[in-house]
Design a protein that fits this description.
- With 56 residues, the protein is mainly alpha-helical.
- The chain has helices spanning 2-20, 26-52.
- It starts with a helix and ends with a helix.
Length: 56
Amino acid sequence: MGEFTDKVKGNAKEAAGKIKQQSNDPETRAEGRAQELEGKGDQAKGEVKGKMGNDI
């Protein structure tokens, strides 16, 4: 179950980050880039959990 949850959270964060990057405000764009990277990290964490059988 943790694998799926991490992947969903990662996708949501990545999508929100991409939306923020469309802003005219440089600070918001930077926040969006960081949020997108965080989302990719959550997705990777979900992949690892899936491969290890959630035994992490």
